[in-house]
């Protein structure tokens, strides 16, 4: 940090916000292949939390890659920068007392380690949305796998760019054997069991 930047302490702290909200703030970080089910499960999980009276906000490709990260692509370097900025934004949301839901492919262990480092390990719950490449390709929600196979998209995760599965995620959802509602219940139960909500 520049030597000329002096931090000002604000009266309204994260813990005061958490007290008023009646819950802790942290990040639910969904990782998985494109089409694995991250957005679908994140969206339903947010709905469930929201109607329980929890303050939430969801970050995903739609509100991030078209705004703050417009111009970043899918090279290894651009993904790292994409995720670095998302982690910094998530950290601000957590400071604002909000349970932040982030759904990004975040393909590499080192990408996610950077996120954990920025957000803080205790403030991040990693959720692995585990769906085989075959199933994601069968779903092909956005028609991108077809394009990637045809060589029309380069560096597509799972095709010609790697995806490294988390080694020890807090929550592991296998979508080929778990329905969306069951996945959401699993997340809510985890949060209740660990006294996060
Ligand atoms: N090359 C390549 N690889 C992977 N995904 C691609 C690519 N090009 C475009 N898309 C679409 O962008 C979405 C992934 O963006 P993310 O910001 O989550 O990716 S990353 O975390 O920076 O790797 C991803 O969205 P989801 O399907 O929601 O995961 C794709 O629809
Ligand atoms: N058990 C499941 N969990 C999540 N999504 C599922 C499941 N079964 C089928 N799907 C479907 O898979 C697709 C996943 O797409 P999406 O949520 O956009 O994935 P991602 O955000 O990971 O790219 C959706 O069409 C969803 O309805």
Automatic annotation (TrEMBL):
One MF term in the entry's GO annotations: kinase activity
Catalytic residues (positions): 106
Transcription regulation recorded as keyword: no
Any single Pfam family the record assigns to this protein: APS_kinase
Species per Swiss-Prot/TrEMBL record: Psychroflexus lacisalsi
Binding residue positions for ATP: 32-39
InterPro entries: APS, APS_kinase_dom, P-loop_NTPase
SUPFAM superfamilies listed in its UniProt record: P-loop containing nucleoside triphosphate hydrolases
Gene that this polypeptide is encoded by: cysC
Homology family: Belongs to the APS kinase family.
Known function: Catalyzes the synthesis of activated sulfate.
Protein name per Swiss-Prot or TrEMBL: Adenylyl-sulfate kinase
Pathway: Sulfur metabolism; hydrogen sulfide biosynthesis; sulfite from sulfate: step 2/3
Keywords: ATP-binding, Kinase, Nucleotide-binding, Phosphoprotein, Transferase
Catalysed reactions, as listed in the record: adenosine 5'-phosphosulfate + ATP = 3'-phosphoadenylyl sulfate + ADP + H(+)
EC number: 2.7.1.25
Domain APS kinase: 25-174
Superkingdom of this protein's organism: Bacteria
